[in-house]
Amino acid sequence: MSTEFPVDVKTVTVRKAVVSDVDDIHTILQEYAASGLLLPRTKEDLAMRIGNFRICEKDGRFAGCAALRDYGDSLFEVRSLAVKKELAGCGIGSLMVSGILDMLKKEKCPCRVFALTYRAPFFCRLGFRIVEKELFPQKIWSDCSICPKAANCDETAVHMEIPAGV
Ligand SMILES: CC(C)(COP(=O)(O)OP(=O)(O)OC[C@H]1O[C@@H](n2cnc3c(N)ncnc32)[C@H](O)[C@@H]1OP(=O)(O)O)[C@@H](O)C(=O)NCCC(=O)NCCS
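Above: the input record for the complex with coenzyme A. Below: its predicted structure, written as tokens.
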């Protein structure tokens, strides 16, 4: 874990991703996919869905990414959340997820947001609750059907309800 905590917000920016970010996103997702923490995604898929991504930069350099998938019916998923290993633990992941939650509160509430993760305590610290995976059929039938773990999924589902007028 980094010794720099919390992250110095003056050196960190979060912005919408653009197509030229695809290589950085692809590289970091591949790194974590190799240890089974995230699903790998092709560059073509990333380029097609680049509008879902946010990028965090520290001192102007790529530090991490997060995506928000809209399933319709006011259901969203935080996915492809990744922070560079050397910057882990200094608040960048929290900053990206908090930014997504702020946007949902301002623009999309009432809504529900979930994630499938091995880092449930990280999400719970940000206000998510652990729930049964079966709450999310759309997720199960899209990504889960292409995941090597499929029926043996050992990730935890976390969920947050954002009521109207928060
Ligand atoms: C999970 C991941 C995105 C977290 O990013 P990060 O920048 O390291 O996250 P943060 O620094 O905000 O928080 C990590 C830890 O720092 C500490 N921390 C950070 N901000 C804190 C705060 N405001 N107060 C107290 N502790 C804090 C905590 O120990 C926290 O531990 P926790 O995860 O058990 O809650 C990152 O580790 C990663 O890329 N992991 C691999 C991919 C992955 O698992 N992604 C999630 C899939 S959904």
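Notes for the reader.
The two ends are 33 Å apart (CA to CA).
The pocket of coenzyme A is lined by residues 6, 32, 37-38, 81-83, 88-94, 115, 117-119, 121-122, 125 (CB under 6 Å).
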